[in-house]
Amino acid sequence: MAESLPVSAWETEFIPDPDRLFMRVHSKLDPKGELRPNVFRDHPKIQGTMSTDWEKYSDPEQTRLRATSQPNENGVLSMVTGEVRKIPGLLVEHSPQPDNRAHTDVTGKKDPQIRVLRNYSAPLGECKDS
Amino acid sequence: MRLQVPKEQRSGLASEPVWQSLPIELQGIVLAIETSRNILELKENWDGEGALPFSQKVWEKAVTFLALLAKEALERLNIIVDAPRILPSAEGSIDLHWKTDSYELLVNIPQNGAPASYYGDNTIGNMPIKATCDASKPDRKLISWLSLFL
To answer: Measured between alpha carbons, how far is residue B93 from residues A7, A22, B53, B125 in Å?
Structure first.
């Protein structure tokens, strides 16, 4: 019998355009600490999906601490939902997980054009020393 | 004058890669390439989220693309290409990223056999360039576009 995936108890909600999304950025993506287009990438385990957290249910520090390992090697950036939606081909969809009500997917192809047109984001903080 | 690479770094190579014999005018490109070797030290799950490691093959493909681009631009048009940042990207691919006061350009070199893809524009946003290309050859269309800013 196939193993069933955990089903979130949280309802999926519509995210208003002015709301911010938080995303972890690993320090090794750019050792100089600059925000470069390579930070906009799909989750390594989920093709086509960039994982973010909706500010309604998370703050930047909570997002940083959700790193499965090495939270101190992660910084956090923010994106305005409406600005992300303006990028052709990108969709913002609340996708709560059992242990993370804030979880939100940004789906769509992250080709070089999409990643250069990324002026919807801003860094929120430096990585913290261990 | 040519930059020389220590013999021990050349061992096992059938012929000298183009990025190991660039002219001195392209020293900035050589430095960017040498600095980018740290990408090869990133092991599986280097980001704690399950990211893939980077193969020697994709790194060589990326730096060869850059070296050919810079060499061709110098030889054909006598222009010196700015040194990009060479960065780890998604799915074991490598990004070459230029961001200057006049233009921005992003080239992605995939880990598989797929062609490289790029997108660039000036800072006003009215000179876009977008294409895929064979990373093993200098891309003349891209060089012509770069020459507008150099």
So the answer is: 33, 24, 9, 26
Helix and strand tally (H, E) in chain B?
4, 5
Which of B49, B97, B105, B119 would best serve as a mutation to test chain A binding (most A beta carbons within 10 A)? Answer: B49
* Cβ distance of A36 and B87 shorter than 8 Å: yes
Q: What is the pTM of this model?
A: 0.88
Residue ranges per structural domain of chain B: 18-147
CB within 8 Å of chain A, chain B residues 3-32? none
The interface pTM score, or ipTM, of the predicted complex is 0.85
- A57-109 confidence digits (pLDDT tens): 999 999 999 998 889 999 999 999 999 998 889 999 999 999 999 999 999 99
Neighbours of B127 (CB within 10 A): 14
SS3 B39: helix
